[in-house]
Design a protein that fits this description.
Helices cover 46% and strands 18% of the residues. The protein is of the alpha+beta class and 191 residues long. A hairpin with a 4-residue loop joins β4 and β5.
């Protein structure tokens, strides 16, 4: 799995109406992309420790806010890990959406949907001998998706160079027919 830079930190923004008060925001960073959202907490601007990302003090109210911020940090880290484990698209926006409970982080068509459409369009137009190579490619893609992705499918936005490299390695190391492994030009045609 690709190693990504990931970070969660807290910062404040002074209120426009009262410059002595500040709202606390959480910043999510993935591979240099940053997204922020409000924690719905407000403090005195002078009581903020910017290095530690917490409010200064020992009162019960301060401890409550700092505990809340730590819970937010842990929840965001958990959402990040779940996206990685599910082999989903991981970006600052997708982590933020997962934290906020927005389910539409990935939209569009999926790869298996595209293959089904392609098969429907071309199967009756090509002779069986010509279409058998496409059937083999579709079989390789399906086997690859079930072996690598828990959902058994990916969005087209997730198909990238890394996907192609992993797919090539899968074809070379997992032949459909044990006695007839795919090599050279055959691998290139499937890719």
């Amino acid at each position: 799995m690709k190693t990504q830079s990931f970070g969660v930190c807290f910062l404040i923004r002074k209120c426009k109406a009262d410059k002595k008060k500040a709202d606390i925001y959480v910043r999510i960073t993935v591979d240099g992309e940053e997204k922020e959202c409000s924690t719905k907490e407000q403090i005195d601007a002078s009581s903020w420790n910017s290095q530690k990302g917490i409010e200064k003090g020992n009162s019960i109210a301060v401890k409550s806010i700092n505990d809340h911020l730590e819970n937010i940090r842990l929840t965001i880290k958990d959402k990040y890990r779940k996206l990685q484990d599910a082999a989903e698209l991981v970006s600052a926006q997708s982590v933020k959406d997962a934290y906020l409970g927005i389910q539409s982080s990935l939209k569009g068509h999926k790869l298996k949907e595209l293959m089904t459409y392609y098969k429907k369009i071309w199967e009756h137009k090509l002779k069986n001998g010509g279409f058998k190579n496409y059937k083999t490619t579709i079989k390789y893609v399906e086997l690859f998706l079930y072996s690598k992705y828990p959902s058994g499918d990916v969005y087209l936005s997730q198909v990238n160079g890394r996907f192609a490299t992993d797919f090539e390695h899968f074809i070379r190391t997992t032949p459909i027919k044990e006695y007839n492994p795919c090599k050279g030009n055959g691998v290139g045609k499937h890719i």
